[in-house]
Amino acid sequence: MSGLPTTKPIRPLEVPVPVASRPRRLVGGILVAALVAACGAGGPTQTPSATSAPASTSPSETAPASTSPASDAPSSVASAPTSSGPSASPVALTVGLGYIPNVQFAPFYLADESGAYEQAGLHVTLQNKIDPDLVTLLGQGGVDIGLSDGTSVIPAVSQGIPVVYTSTIYGDFPSVLVTTSSTGITKAADLKGKKIGIPGRYGSSWIMLQALLQSANLTPDDVTIVEFPDFSQVAGLQQGRVDAATGFSNNEPIQLQNAGVTPVVLTVDDIVPLPGPGLVTGTATLQSKRDALAAFTKVTLDAMTEITADPQKGIDATFKAVPDLAADAGLQRQILDATIAAWKNDRTNGALGSIDKPGWQASVDFMTSLGLVPNKVTVDQLVDASLLP
After folding, report:
1. pTM given for the model
2. Each residue's pLDDT tens digit, 367-378
3. Backbone dihedral region of 209: left (phi > 0), alpha (psi from -120 to 50 degrees) or beta?
4. What is the DSSP string of 345-389?
5. Residue-by-residue DSSP string for 266-324
6. H or E segment at 111?
């Protein structure tokens, strides 16, 4: 069987940890955490061979690490101007996107390339960092706003890191369980006694898997968990080493399909409405740059709407920002189409960006039952919809 195509989708945060390293600045103002640096966060560093699948690089699976409350925001953040009107000087915003530049960041690229951020009175720097940095940096004010997994925000706030989720980007939780038609697995109950591949017992995939199992009155003890620390669980699925593997709706199913394998995907959205990746900022930054953050949010959501109506705009903007991706335009379009599908919450049918507070409460309750929320938190501590247009 042929190897899977190499893809580099978004990897939003799993667990906030202290700052580990600083990425290098590259051409175009985009900061890239190279895959070599990603190894320090538990990410892969090697190009997959023809006989193995590339590591999962969709919404992230960063190995857990200890967390601590973030320090006070730097004085440069506290003194930043809050006006983003056309007559004021542009307000600088550093935007953390997570991992390497990819087509799934198309709305940010389109808003930047079109000059929409600039027209809104913003000077935006798009930045990519390895996962362990971002939540802590947001809490410290070192990054103004970033894309982070909602299931990372809950334990972070519970442990005193001063961040808040302000806008939904992925309305449908992107973490999924993928298998093939040959296994006979079509529902959660079919997982009993099966081997399931996962990077480790942490992060959004581990939370998702427990929810799937619980929906069928199963626990992890009813299956065999096979850990793939190098994120090669889909290769394990192809090789028959496991019966199913965790992944992301805009990555692993596409990889399997392109390799000539019919994927079967189990999702968690109808079981527990876990919050997907969205825009997150530090509480101090929210106060000091509220107007600029609101303008940024509106422009970004407008770009998402444009791309939903005409995906080619997202493809064109991505190829301008990351020319290397144009080498496989067909694959990039598949990834973008799957990403667009995940932006809309099919359960609530809310507008792009809207925050499903009842879903967040259900998520807090579920994660608390798993022992992942050490200190009680309320939804109002976790989310703030005041930046939405």
Report:
1. 0.78
2. 999 999 999 999
3. alpha
4. -TTT-PPTT---HHHHHHHHHHHHHTT--SS---HHHHB-GGG--
5. E--TTT------EEEEEHHHHHHTHHHHHHHHHHHHHHHHHHHH-HHHHHHHHHHH-GG
6. helix 106-113
